Amino acid sequence: MTDQSLVASAPHKPETDGVIMIRVWTTSAPSSGLPFRRDWLTTTFVNFESLIAVTISGDAMAPRLANGCVTLVDRSQASVQGDGIYILLAGNEAVPRRLSLNPLTGHVSITADNRLYQSQPDCDPRSLSILGRVVWVGQCL
């Protein structure tokens, strides 16, 4: 379950010249969104309308997700449907973590790629507030 007050609720902006503006998750004023080519979105993602852009803050998922990189998050995957990187909501923060599902217990392990952060094994997935699953990453080198 997510706190809807934290998520940009406006729909994607109308397409202009083959470009679609993907809304940005924010706890502050709404942004105009990030532009992506329609043909790329439709060939890469089954349902691009469930995507939201989230900028990563911090080094917990470094080196895979660097501070400041932009991710596309599939909000239709707001429950653990398999191992992957998800965005968890902790208060007003979007927290990226790797979730691994234990098929025997149905519980998940929550880990950060950066070993300086503590893992949380054997968590009940119903206790998590998940924004969605990370399906794309863009960053400067």
UniProtKB/TrEMBL annotation:
InterPro entries: LexA-like, LexA/Signal_pep-like_sf, Peptidase_S24_S26A/B/C
Domain spans labelled Peptidase S24/S26A/S26B/S26C: 33-135
Domain of life: Bacteria
Identification of the protein by name: S24 family peptidase
